[in-house]
Amino acid sequence: MCGRTCLTLEPNEILKACRYKTSKFQKSPINQDDNKSEDLNDRKECCGHIKGQYIEPEWRSEFNCGRKYVPSFNIAPNDVTPVLISRDHFCDEGDSKAESGHHRLLIPMLWGLIPFWHKGDYSKHKLTTNNCRLERMLESKLYNNAFKRGHRCVVLCEGFYEWQTKSPERAVYLFYMPQKEKAIIHDRNTWEPEDINLLKMAGVFDVWQDEQGDKIYSYSVITYESNEVMSWLHHRMPAVLETEQQITDWLDFKNISNEEALAALRQPVSVLEKHRVANLVNNARNKSNLCNKPIELIQSEKPTMNKLMSTWLNLRTPSASSKAYKDDKDDAKNKNHNLVSTTDDSESEPENRNAKRRRFV
């Protein structure tokens, strides 16, 4: 399953991380000399890009009833995250823009699909929709409708967290795609947005509309039975899209049928990197930058943190306060005793002198 993710990039950085190559141009073998101008036009996609070059998807900001994407080390269901979809979803039938089938948009969407038929407050549909089981998707009244309408999407993250269900301590791991040699996923200083290999998961999305006409885009992550990559940890895993061709086919609902798209999904990811993290991620409100760090790094920092904390606490512990109070009380008592003794001596001295004088009188 997939219940927490990590995505710390800003929107402009995500665009750089999602650069993709447009479909390659193949010159027509017919009338090559007579149709050079036509060939040149064919090389250009609807947005003016040449086939075969790397381009960025377009960012499309949706109102989503005021909900916005916020980069986070600990993203949970009901948060908003950027999702890739085909540009064809916003093209009318017969529009020239709809002919390519390969252009991508990035849209912020709510994690947890809201059924389009739901009435009332969108947050009160009382359905758990952060994950969609592939095995039941085509029979589900909730997901089948969206899938048949071509609402296929790609969910982006730097990695996802998973808990070990077969361990009493419920160890947590961060899973992510293999990176370039010097790129360390949890250390932002070692990579640039255009170099990071984001993890991409297949999903389905839908569009819900309230009584005022405001829309919310929302999605579910597709999951299936774990293969050897994750079966030791959990019996379910997200449908990770490993290759660029898988991503293209999943998004291209115009040219790739649902059957073909599903066939591509049934090829589980062959390799994922991982490291164990601390249980900080258990609390969805904890957005600390320690969430995605290996647990070894956090433990190595722990003694210093504990020393500072213990010093701070020791100054305020009841025992220390009581001791300080007792010492102050003893000091005050001794001081008062000294004052009394001095006073007694000074007051008794004339009496002694008088007594001595009386002896000689």
From TrEMBL:
Stretches with biased composition (Basic and acidic residues): 324-334
Gene Ontology molecular function: lyase activity; peptidase activity; single-stranded DNA binding
UniProt entry keywords in alphabetical sequence: Covalent protein-DNA linkage, DNA damage, DNA-binding, Hydrolase, Lyase, Protease
Protein source organism: Glossina morsitans morsitans (Savannah tsetse fly)
Residue ranges, annotated region (Disordered): 319-361
Origin superkingdom: Eukaryota
UniProt similarity note: Belongs to the SOS response-associated peptidase family.
The protein's name: Abasic site processing protein HMCES
UniProt KW Metal-binding keyword: no
GO BP terms: protein-DNA covalent cross-linking repair; proteolysis
InterPro entries: SRAP, SRAP-like
Coiled coil start-end: none
